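Request: Show me your protein:
***
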Amino acid sequence: MQENLVIVESPAKAKTIEKFLGKDFIVKSSFGHIRDLSKKDLGINIGEGFKPVYEIPADKKKVVHDSPIVDPNMAASVKNEK
């Protein structure tokens, strides 16, 4: 049974990496970044020690929501933003 998941940005890389890792791994492509720094406030929270603030672009919400390893809290927030 495949229990190991690797997510890469490129579909071509996914196929190549899958060949190296073998049948014990599932290799999926996210087709690019699945989160970016928020454009608001330069993507940092100064009040919390310059902690980065990330957002999921609209075109990647389905990728994140359909991911088999998504944190349930993240999945709920993505679903509510649709």
Observations:
- The chain has a mean pLDDT of 78.
